[in-house]
Amino acid sequence: MFFKSAKINEFRLWGLFFTLFGMGIMILGTAGIVLWGGQAAKVVAGIFMVFGLISMLVSMAIYFWAGMLSTSAVMLECPECHKPTKMLGKTDRCMFCKTMLTLDPDKATHAADGANGQAT
């Protein structure tokens, strides 16, 4: 994971990035008409509009994909913050407190079990 956050939140972050990038490209294309004027600026604005539209469509696809993944994600309660969170794959992070979560016993750490064993 790139940003050390939950996988679903990372997908949504990339969707937001493509949305803002597409809108920025379209605004820059429209600003070309204001700055340069003329027929060439309209062609440049049209090209920028197409690139912005493609970026917005990529964003829509990413949001749709994240939504479909979210419906099939495993719901569990975070052991740290005790809030319900969704988990994708074998390991993921809590959406709220960023604690590493796993359902795979081979990848789990047993530090808390060792501390409880010594107290009894």
Any overview of this molecule?
A hairpin with a 6-residue loop joins strand 3 (91-93) and strand 4. By secondary structure, the protein is mainly α. It contains three helices and four strands; from the N terminus they run H-H-E-E-E-E-H. Helix 1 (7-36) runs antiparallel to helix 2 (38-71). The protein has two domains: 7-71; 75-119, no CATH class. It has a two-stranded antiparallel ribbon. Strands 3-4 form a two-stranded antiparallel ribbon. The two termini are 38 Å apart. The model is unreliable at 113-120 (pLDDT under 50). It comes from Paenibacillus darwinianus. This is Zinc-ribbon containing domain-containing protein. The chain crosses the membrane at residues 12-37, 43-66.
Major beta sheet summary: 2 strands, antiparallel
Q: How many β-strand stretches?
A: 4
Mean pLDDT: 83
Kindly report how far apart the N and C termini lie: 38 Å
Q: What is the C-alpha radius of gyration, as a whole number of Å?
A: 22 Å
**Low-pLDDT runs:** 113-120
Spatial sequence of strands, sheet with the most strands? 1-2
Class from helix and strand fractions: mainly alpha
Number of domains: 2
Give the count of helical stretches: 3
Q: Give the ordered list of helices and strands.
A: HHEEEEH
Morphology call: rod-shaped
